[in-house]
Amino acid sequence: MSPVFIDGLPYNPVNGEGIFTTVAFLCGQQARGTVRLSFKDPTSKPIIDHAYLDNDLDVAVLAEGCRLCHEIIMKGRGTKDIIVGAWPKIVPHPNDMIGWKEHVRAFASTCFHPGGTCKMAPDNDPMGVVDSRLRVRNVKGLRVADVSILPLLNNGHPQILAYAIGEKAASLILEDDGVSNKRGGKIVHEKEFPNKDTILLPPPPPPPPPTIAPPSIIIPKGDSGINIADELKGATKVILLKNMVGPGEVDDLLDSETKEECQKYGEVDKCLIYEIPEAPEDEAVRIFDEFKRVESAIKAVVAMNGRYFGGRVVKAKFYNFDKFRQFDLADDS
Hints:
Number of helices: 7
């Protein structure tokens, strides 16, 4: 067990003693710190004031959180009979709110993850740093894309917000540079299909050059409404991706981008995009990818289903191989 430090001195359990610790976290604090320039030289270190516990309400809320943790442990079922009291004994538990507030001021520490130092705000806010497109005011060519733009921190870990801000920043930069941020591709309409009795598909592209597999990462997923266990019972070499883009968001890049993404799971023979007029937004654009091997298609469905793609939750499932080869692309069974 790691040593516990009280007033800078280490205290370790002795004679087989065990320690039970609870922690109260203060989210949504009222105090606001500052980051100020110390000199005109931009390389000089800024003056940072975190303003921890400068607000009396923050102290009261955190003190009540500590008091409640203490009550649960000392009087709760399953703990009241085995927890004997404060440890180390030289730091007794307070008996009232005044004592708990003093305890908070003496022992509270940061949980890190600061933010809001370059907050997004309207032009009339003198404390605002970036506008709604993440551009720093009065500085050309500079954006901020992290949790420092948040006017207020969320009640939880800011990691998912950092992901969302980064994705939005990439989209805004592409738009301002005149590049479409809408995943593109070629729309295939029914009138362009050959006779269904004739199988006429373009030759497969050359295999991609060998690549080094990227390191494994955990990708947050949403609820696509598709049960993967049921899908695997009818696995084919063809997968159907829906809700990657919406109606009118298809351009000349979508087929290549989708194929590139799917080739992470195996060799893709064909990619076909079909838009259904007047269909619900999440059903209108259908992207079909035919893999060389069923195993690759299975990997793709498992990985792609529920993925966040451009702010949307992707729906991935298998598609009947024969219907795909006959350009019957509207089936939903």
